[in-house]
């Protein structure tokens, strides 16, 4: 009887170990890459991928070799999302729950920033405005926003300008009476392009690499930005990407010195103690987005064959 019990305990232990190993292995799958319009097949992705969570099902976009922005979801091939020539990947954010009300910032050919803000108009459509907001950068911008219908809209655009993290803000009670602030420095020196997200009204978090390639962040809360950068450690060879799955939740990813993707999570009260590996082999920054329809985080990278690869779930 004792031997049977011991054998049973070993079986349970082995089963638990196998389960943990399975959880620890994040599996990546190639979803190809875009070519030139109209026949998007398999060719080279010219930019890092961009998760596009407002599409249903959640998809991914990238700049093709023709400099057009292409996208695909889990059930279709590559198609044109934006036929205008792209300097690099834009940054997107959805305001409200109207799927077509998507705001974005992208770098213009003169290295200034073009911004399109689109917000629900209260009758099932969107009100949209477009501005060139100046600035000067050779790197992709980041955009974040919050929106309360009829009372509050705020859009923050971030760039790395001469190794300083800069922000310019659009705010007002309605998209048609909002105004832009001047560009404001959030300090530096920083390296690479920023990543930003808002997990609720009154809160924005922006992440950036320092010149030592470690991850840092600043937060906007209570009407002002934190004065100092918060250190998150790590050691990265790419820009970072951040998502929020719910209020007071954050997940940050970056490419490590091993070309794998590493992830850090805020659970509402604390950051997890260590960066967790998501495996993979990336030659670009990663993108992480929350797929609300499936309640799962989706990760995207460009592989060393210049194809776009995807994975989902947690990293260990």
Structure description:
Mean pLDDT is 82; it is low at 1-24 and 35-43. Strand 16 (203-210) and strand 17 form a beta hairpin. 41% of the residues are buried. The protein has 316 residues and is mostly beta strands. It has one domain: 6 Propeller (Neuraminidase), CATH 2.120.10. The strands form six sheets. Strands 10, 11, 12, 13 and 14 form a five-stranded antiparallel beta sheet that branches. Strands 15, 16, 17, 18 and 19 form a five-stranded antiparallel beta sheet that branches. Strands 1-26-25-24 form a four-stranded antiparallel beta sheet, with no helix packed on it. The chain is built from one helix and 26 strands.
Beta-strand proportion: 35-45%
Molecular shape: globular
The third-level CATH topology is Neuraminidase
Q: N-to-C terminal Cα separation, in Å?
A: 37 Å
* Biggest sheet overview: 5 strands, antiparallel
Computed structural class? mainly beta
Element pattern in H and E = HEEEEEEEEEEEEEEEEEEEEEEEEEE
| Unreliable residue runs | 1-24, 35-43
Note the total helix count: 1
| Relative helix content | under 10%
Mean pLDDT reading: 82
Level-2 CATH architecture? 6 Propeller
CATH class: Mainly Beta
The CATH superfamily title: Fucose-specific lectin
Question: How many separate structural domains?
Answer: 1
Q: Count every beta strand, where a strand is a DSSP E run of 2 or more residues.
A: 26
Radius of gyration: 21 Å
